[in-house]
């Protein structure tokens, strides 16, 4: 996967037991009005009465009807939780934090009191928190420690239609917990599955025919426009389309643009701000980006009232598809693309790739235009292209690397992962690929063909880390290599968003400033050097600015490092440092990343050992101009070519030593 945790995280406000965010003063009459005006409000009594008597329920309602922000509050107000905590899972951490802040505001309280959130490495809850918004991945980790989830009386699996791997696994885990609690006479566990799409028979059947409660939606007519021709550059088309709207429609009507990722969004924002400065005669544009890595203060700006005479334009990833509802939107511009993980069971690799949206996703995006009044959706693709889209998104579990999830399931004591009660089973091949990877890493052992694979003591320890198994192993191994501190630093940085700031127009300046950190050993040691320098100036912000280092990201890495260090302490790991001699760090990386190794080919490219893929070193790498014989890498990305990112030079002999049978089986002769 792309980084140690699979999905990356970036710091928000606080971390573990984070500082309480500010409340919003006196009870706010306007907020109360807003709550009462939501489509869900008239249905609340009936809804709660039904949920009260049902062990499981499926709730369906159009995005923006109030499911996420209201139902947890209703449950609490009606005492359905019986005093215990209610967990509400979200596929995205942006949504977990933003929704939690909103609910705290509505309850006129501060985050971390009765309402809190928990995302990886950030815990804004206290012992008295009753509504806990968390990522699905967090709840899954809690289930490792307590498979019956005894702390909770109600679990709300929100945004179920997204079908992330973690939500899919949670379906099975909470269902098992519910059964188990029933059998052992513990307090009942109530399960509520919430979805924004209608195809829910599947959910209902899976949860023992749980009744489906429909919320009356509020949807105004939407005019849908397609392009006449396929668009080769959808980002550019979105800019053109926006200005067409801006010239024709009154300024108070806001626009939501769907693009695929941070870079694309940032450059569109820049371009639009520039263009709108040049067009003095038109009303002002308030252009706001929205994606996961954005600082929370900037995220909440999309909810603020648009100043008079301005038009708000939000440029978002698919986080705005269903997870976050932005008020005031009258126009949607949909590029018809989304960034998705694509897994190849043969190569064992997850690749993040821009793919077409499904019809269901397209319809969700269109729907964002008609929430408050009639609207228009401009699709940057033809009607024929729409016709060719698949009708539903394939659940992530059927298209991503499962090694991390399988390790977690096994750590929960579920030994027979092949027969685990998945709502939609992943391919047998993908499960086998994951088990093989775990076996090669030493986390799993198989005594004989007929035996069930078993978690090894090493595997159990690996599962304690909220990281991709490879990186958990590297941390555990670092004890033997005497470089725990260094490895912790590297893994922490790999887990956050890029700490380096790259600006095309300042490329030469950046390169010369960065030179002092660059190591001929590769990117991992370069990251280590950078962090060491950062520490030596006591995390100085101005220093970061001068050195083109993202202050927020490197600070997040520092926080993550603290947390990982705590886990190490709990695991009884002895801390050690290798000082200047970083060869052992690379040995250790080689021992954990041997599945990600590539050799220089005669043609001057590299070839991966695992799948004989032709790859190149990423231009941003410290090794871009070098031709080492053998390297390990942290991730592969596909940008036309396949690029390795975060690459380190290794000695082939080291690899041979750590996994002799693997290299033999691959029939690879590692040149020395
Ligand atoms: P659902 O889960 O059904 O999609 P939500 O409960 O997320 O609906 O949203 C209900 C309403 O609350 C939306 O209309 C949205 O505009 C508003 N809302 C949600 N979060 C915020 C926020 N952080 N700031 C302002 N309004 C918000
Ligand atoms: Mg919601």
Automatic annotation (TrEMBL):
- Record SUPFAM superfamilies: P-loop containing nucleoside triphosphate hydrolases
Q: Pfam families given for it?
A: DEAD, HA2_C, Helicase_C, OB_NTP_bind, WHD_HA2
Determine if ATP-binding is one of this entry's keywords.
Answer: yes
Record-annotated Helicase ATP-binding domain positions: 48-216
Region entry Disordered, spans: 1-27
Report the enzyme's class at the first EC level: hydrolase
Quote one Gene Ontology molecular function term: helicase activity
Protein name (record): RNA helicase
Record's catalysed reaction(s):
ATP + H2O = ADP + phosphate + H(+)
Name all Helicase C-terminal domain ranges. Answer: 241-413
Q: EC number(s) per UniProt? A: 3.6.4.13
* Comp. bias regions, Gly residues: 5-15
Q: Which organism does this record belong to?
A: Aplysia californica
Q: Which UniProt keywords apply?
A: ATP-binding, Helicase, Hydrolase, Nucleotide-binding
């Amino acid at each position: 996967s792309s980084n140690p945790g699979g999905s990356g995280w970036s710091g928000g406000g606080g971390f573990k037991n984070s500082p309480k965010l500010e409340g919003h003063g006196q009870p706010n009459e306007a907020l109360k009005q807003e709550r009462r005006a939501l489509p869900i409000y008239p249905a609340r009594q009936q809804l709660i009465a039904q949920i009260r008597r049902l062990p499981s329920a499926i709730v369906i309602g159009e995005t923006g009807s109030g499911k996420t922000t209201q139902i947890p509050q209703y449950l609490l107000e009606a005492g359905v939780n019986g005093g215990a905590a209610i967990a509400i899972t979200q596929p995205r951490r942006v949504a977990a934090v933003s929704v939690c802040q909103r609910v705290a505001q509505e309850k006129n309280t501060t985050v971390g009191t009765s309402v809190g959130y928990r995302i990886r490495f950030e815990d804004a809850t206290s012992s008295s928190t009753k509504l806990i918004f968390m990522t699905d991945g967090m709840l899954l980790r809690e289930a490792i420690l307590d498979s019956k989830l005894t702390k909770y009386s109600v679990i709300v699996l929100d945004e179920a239609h997204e079908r992330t791997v973690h939500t899919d696994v949670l379906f099975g885990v909470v269902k098992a917990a519910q059964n188990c609690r029933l059998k052992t006479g513990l307090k009942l566990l109530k399960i509520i599955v919430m979805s924004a799409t209608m195809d829910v028979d599947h959910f209902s059947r899976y949860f023992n025919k749980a009744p489906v409660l429909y919320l009356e939606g509020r949807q105004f007519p939407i005019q849908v426009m397609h392009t006449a021709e396929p668009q080769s550059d959808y980002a550019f088309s979105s800019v053109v389309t926006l200005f067409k709207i801006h010239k024709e429609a009154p300024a108070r009507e806001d626009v939501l643009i769907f693009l695929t990722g941070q870079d694309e969004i940032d450059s569109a924002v820049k371009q639009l701000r520039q263009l709108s400065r040049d067009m003095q005669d038109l009303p002002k544009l308030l252009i706001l980006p929205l994606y996961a890595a954005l600082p929370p203060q900037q995220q909440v700006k999309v909810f603020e009232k648009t100043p008079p005479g301005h038009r708000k334009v939000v440029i978002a990833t698919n986080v705005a598809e269903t997870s976050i509802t932005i008020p005031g939107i009258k126009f949607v511009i949909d590029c018809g693309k989304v960034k998705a993980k694509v897994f190849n069971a043969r190569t064992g690799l997850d690749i993040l790739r821009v793919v077409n949206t499904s019809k269901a996703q397209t319809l969700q995006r269109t729907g964002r235009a008609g929430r408050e009044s009639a609207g228009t959706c401009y699709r940057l693709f033809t009607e024929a292209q729409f016709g060719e889209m698949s009708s539903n998104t394939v659940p992530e579990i059927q298209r991503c690397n499962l090694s991390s999830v399988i390790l977690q399931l096994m750590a929960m004591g579920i030994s027979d992962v092949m027969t685990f009660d998945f709502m939609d089973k992943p391919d047998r091949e993908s499960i086998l690929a994951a088990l093989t990877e775990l076996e090669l890493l030493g986390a799993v052992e198989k005594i004989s063909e007929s035996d069930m694979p078993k978690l090894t003591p090493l595997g159990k320890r690996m599962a304690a880390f909220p990281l991709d198994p490879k990186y958990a192993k590297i941390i555990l191994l670092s004890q033997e290599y005497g470089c725990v501190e260094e490895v912790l630093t590297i893994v922490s940085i790999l887990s956050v968003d890029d700490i380096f700031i790259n600006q095309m127009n300042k490329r030469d300046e950046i390169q010369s400033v960065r030179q002092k950190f660059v190591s001929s050993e590769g990117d991992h040691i370069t990251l280590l050097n950078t962090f060491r320098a950062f520490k030596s100036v006591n995390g100085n912000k101005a220093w970061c600015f001068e050195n083109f280092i993202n202050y927020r990201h490197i600070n997040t890495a520092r926080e993550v490092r603290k947390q990982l260090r705590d886990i190490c302490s709990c695991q009884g790991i002895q801390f050690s440092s290798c000082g200047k001699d970083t060869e052992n760090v690379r040995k250790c990386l080689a021992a954990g990343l041997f599945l990600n190794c590539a050799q220089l080919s005669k043609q001057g490219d590299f070839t991966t050992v695992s799948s004989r893929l032709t790859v190149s070193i990423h231009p941003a790498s410290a090794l871009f101009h070098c031709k080492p014989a053998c390297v390990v890498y942290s991730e592969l990305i596909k940008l036309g070519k396949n690029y390795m990112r975060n690459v380190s030079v290794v000695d082939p002999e080291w690899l041979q030593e750590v996994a002799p049978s693997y290299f033999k089986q691959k029939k690879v002769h590692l040149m020395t």
